[in-house]
Design brief:
The protein is of the alpha/beta class. The protein has 2 domains: about 220 residues, Rossmann fold (3-Layer(aba) Sandwich); about 110 residues, Rossmann fold, CATH 3.40.50.1100. Helix content is about 40%, strand content about 15%. It has 11 helices and 10 strands. The strands form 2 sheets. Strands 1-2-10-7-8-9 form a 6-stranded mixed sheet, with helices on both faces. Strand 8, helix 8 and strand 9 form a beta-alpha-beta unit. Helix 2 packs across helix 6 and helix 3 runs parallel beside helix 4. It starts with 17 loop residues before the first strand and ends in a 17-residue tail after the last helix. The protein binds pyridoxal-5'-phosphate. The site of pyridoxal-5'-phosphate has 20 residues, from helix 3, strand 7 and helix 7.
């Protein structure tokens, strides 16, 4: 099947704007810094998943399914946007979320968990060891009840989902021409690998010179992240219908600001959130976009970019997560020690 003829449901407000970051540029004085506002894609509170879901939901409707079953961490942005897409299209949604133990409950409902509840998603909380069994059981239950469930892997990071970011590259190339700004780099956060896979395929497919710098959402070695993105690219090469020959060398992953682990908070991540808020009035999230911004700032400070280069930070959203980290943010702002670095909802907690 060819890229242009894949089933697609319009869910995102596109194109998202590209804005200058003049104050951050001036402060760091090392490269021209820009932001692509994929936090403004719409669909719940916006974010990168809206682009992926356009293709994934296209497939759901094409296969005549009426329920989606997916999984992720307790405060997942992916779950929020997937639930929103399901509600918009009148479909049922089951979220199997991982936490320290089965049926884990927070004291307060806030951030993404509150949004999941508000959308009436069916939620099951499990420890990671039981995830596969719980997902299979949910699929089986729905089938027995007469529904036609569709399983979506975490982050929508499969070939179809990645098509959303192949499309984003086309969008950026067009904006770059209109704005007469030749972007040299895109800096973004990588987690489950779908965004990275799409971006890397996009620059290859459309013969762009833009270099993709992917920043890990944790401290695991770059090879582990590359090993997530490459199979998605291999799978997508078949869907795209042309041979784009992506190799390991096309994938750059940096992991200097993972903060010890996925979702862990650190002073560095908090400072990245604060610097963007203070200089540009833009809010990023502590889990994904903060490590990417921290890494980008570090690269500028270490003069890894030429001063006249145009660096585009891809803001992939996730801002709702800020509110689940309110206690460490408050501590940092009033000059106290962080109350925790491993979030209570992380399976690594306790
Ligand atoms: C806000 C945000 N940015 C970046 C990512 C990483 O994207 P991907 O999973 O496609 O690597 C995620 C994934 O959940 C996210 O929620």
């Amino acid at each position: 099947m060819k890229f242009g003829s894949l089933p697609r449901v319009r869910l995102a407000n596109l194109p998202t704007p590209i804005q200058e970051m003049p104050n951050l540029t001036k402060l760091l004085d090392g490269a021209k810094l820009w932001v692509k506002r994929d936090d403004l894609t719409g669909l719940a509170l916006g974010g990168n998943k809206a682009r992926k879901l356009e293709y994934l939901m296209g497939d759901v409707l094409d296969k005549d399914c009426n329920y989606v079953v997916t999984h992720a961490g307790f405060h997942s942005n992916w779950c929020t946007q997937t639930a929103a897409a399901c509600r918009k299209l009148g479909l049922g949604i089951v979220l199997v979320k991982t936490a320290p133990h089965d049926n884990w409950e927070p004291e307060n409902w806030d951030a993404n968990h509150l949004l999941h509840k508000l959308m009436g998603a069916e939620i099951e909380v499990t420890k990671p060891d039981n995830l596969r069994t719980k997902l299979d059981a949910q699929m089986e239950r729905l089938r027995k009840e007469g529904y036609r469930p569709y399983y979506m892997p975490v982050g929508g990071s499969v070939a179809l989902g990645a098509m959303g970011y192949v499309n984003a590259i086309l969008e950026i190339i067009n904006q770059s021409q209109e704005m007469e700004v030749p972007f040299d780099y895109i800096v973004h956060c990588t987690g489950s690998g779908g965004t990275q896979a799409g971006l890397v395929m996009g620059v290859k497919a459309f013969n762009s010179e833009i270099k993709i710098i992917s920043v890990a959402d944790d401290s695991s070695p770059p090879e582990e992240h590359i090993a997530k993105a490459l199979p998605i690219i291999k799978e997508a090469e078949n869907i795209l219908g042309f041979n784009i020959k992506v190799t390991n060398e096309d994938l750059t992953v940096l992991n200097d600001f993972g903060g010890g682990g996925y979702g862990f908070i650190s002073e560095e991540k908090i400072n990245a959130v604060k610097i963007l808020a203070e200089t540009e009035g833009i809010f990023i999230d502590p889990v994904y976009t903060a490590p990417a911004v921290a890494q980008m700032i570090d690269l500028v400070k270490k003069k890894k970019f030429r001063k006249d280069s145009n660096v585009l930070f891809l803001h992939t959203g996730g801002t709702a997560a800020l509110f689940s980290y309110k206690d460490p943010f408050k501590a940092n702002i009033i000059g106290e020690k962080l109350p925790w670095t491993i979030p209570p909802w992380s399976p690594k907690s306790g």
